[in-house]
Amino acid sequence: MVGILFTSFLILLLLGVPIAFAIGLGALVPIVLQGNLPLSIVVSRMFGGIDSFPLMAIPFFVLTGTLAGACNLTDRIAALAGFMVGRMRAGLAHVNIVASMLFGGVTGSAVADAAATGSMMIPAMKSQGYPAGYSAAVTAASSVIGSIIPPSTLMIVYGFLTGVSTGRLFLGGVIPGILVGLALMLVAHIQAVRLGIGHDHDDRPRTFATFWSIAKDSGPAMLVPVVIIGGIVGGFFTPTEAGVVAVVTILLIGALIYRSFTWASLREAFLSAGYTTAMVMMILAASTVFANLLTRARFQSTLIDLLSAVSPIAEVQMLLIILALLFLTLFIDATAVLIMFAAPLAAVCATLGYDPVHSGIVIVVTCLIGGVTPPVGTLLFIAAGIARISIGEASRAILPFVLALLAVNVLIMLIPFLVTWLPRLAFG
User: Fold this and answer.
1) Would you say residue 44 lies in a domain?
2) Other C-beta atoms lying within 10 Å of the C-beta of residue 351
3) Tally of domains within the chain
4) Rounded to whole angstroms, how far apart are CA atoms 265 and 253?
5) What is the pLDDT of residues 134-188, one digit of tens each?
6) Does residue 169 contact residue 66 with C-beta atoms inside 8 Å?
7) Is residue 214 part of a domain?
8) Which of 372, 310, 298 has its CA nearest to residue 146?
9) pLDDT in tens, 57-113
10) Torsion angles phi and psi, residue 425, rounded to 5
11) Where are the alpha helices (DSSP H) in 234-333?
12) The pTM is what?
């Protein structure tokens, strides 16, 4: 069954069938050919796959991201990031990365981060003499942080599919997200020196008065992650309810403090959130059928046997899983890969003795890295489109940043403490 499943899916993908339909139709083929399962399982699994209270958090966090863009939070966050790191070599590149770290704590979406931060930072970097490829690479790589630092829509999906606590996954992503940001800043500096660029810097005086002025403007935006994480850790609401709280918080900030909402911007924000949510839910519904067939075919047992045959060392087996996921994300959208393989891989990692939160963060980060690798890297396509360059030019510039992302992911794989310390501190 597994061979037919993957073959039919890949053929549909090569024919240009949209990813959600390719997954769903690919799962339908072995059911029809083998005839040992009723066709009704497709419909029941698709609806059952999205009929979940935890998944209700996704549209709310997506809406939080679109509302943040509608009230120009990106500009205010970038101003704070500029004050923090703007005087360093390749200052705008560092501002881009730090802004992604801050903005990711508001939206929880790598795609929203790439679009919002890229629209502002890429033109600014190009005007200061940064190569377009370098600017796009920094933006695409740093947007990965948007789905690592909590909140994270991908972690909500992973938690739902595997039964791992979303709150623990959120906190487990804090230190890895910071490490990713620091690694990207190091690479951005090295590349700037190598290319002889990045002599710009923020000339604003580093005085308390300047800081206070920026903090008053950007401070309300930073309330969103504080409210979300504080509420979840404190037990005041669930991650799903946190999505609703985030939307209400951003609406109040935009309407009462910044007063930057218009009816047109609100309409656009709600429509954009609806489109994105529909796309994610269609992929999730179809992928639920795909994953169910993998489970029925005992795919995880086959994978465990294969990994054991290669090496008995758990770390080597986990590294092979990372490489396999990266290979899949070269051709399949990273979100779809996560949804299709989250449950089987979680079972495999548990068999290898990995903490479920630790393995979950490693798998999510791996799929996110796939978002910046050609030829199907969604984040790289967004950044290249904003920079108005070919995907080939962006691909050449992204390689050092991809290596940095991989290095951090291997580090957190080898040192579980980096992931598990905060969840255990908060939840015991």
Assistant:
1) no
2) 16
3) 1
4) 15
5) 999 999 999 999 889 888 888 988 998 898 988 899 999 999 999 999 999 999 9
6) no
7) yes
8) 372
9) 888 888 887 888 788 777 788 778 878 887 788 888 898 899 888 877 777 778 878
10) -65, -40
11) 239-252, 263-296, 299-310, 314-329
12) 0.85
